[in-house]
Amino acid sequence: MIDEERKKLLKADIPEDFEEEDELTDEKQLVIFKLGNEEYGVDIMQVKEIIKMTNITKIPQVPSFVEGIISLRGEILPIIDMRKKFGLPAGEKTRQTRILVINLDNVTIGGIVDEVTEVLRLPNDAITPPPPVIRGINTEYLQGVGQINGRIIILLDMSKILTSNEVIQIEELKEELLNSDLQ
């Protein structure tokens, strides 16, 4: 732990006119993925890694959008189907299907997407608020809509993709699985 005196010394080294990185940049760096024909963008800082689709262990009594769990380097990782979460029709798993490993506030999850296409820098002035039609359909996690080179990219705030109750359910599930492995 850093004591209060050390914090003051560290803050003293920061110039008064210093601005946070987000304020200095006039663009967002996004991981772009597809679900069907639609493109979605997620802030690259919310993505821990991208892995190939793997076998998922099904588990009972979970929300319908939770596909199951995987073990990623010894860590139990709940996997959600992004198509189901967004109310989209089921899609086929292909060689391009990927799992985005996402850091939420206090939990790490994997999200199945059809394909990860690129990392893209999107200028802030190319981003508009979500239109009212999109806003009304369970879209707390929409940040806006980006337009670049004739493409429309739906921007997501992954920290809001799960409700607090869903996060609690997933945490309890992980805890149960860990406890059952220890016995």
From TrEMBL:
Biological process terms from the Gene Ontology for this record are: chemotaxis; signal transduction
Q: Which Pfam families does the record match to this protein? A: CheW
- Which SMART domains does this chain map to? CheW
Record's superkingdom? Answer: Bacteria
One GO cellular component this record assigns the protein to is: cytosol
CheW-like domain boundaries: 27-167
Recorded hits in PANTHER family, A to Z, give: CHEMOTAXIS PROTEIN CHEW, CHEMOTAXIS SENSOR HISTIDINE KINASE-RELATED
What is this protein's name? Chemotaxis protein CheW
Source organism of the structure = Caldicellulosiruptor owensensis
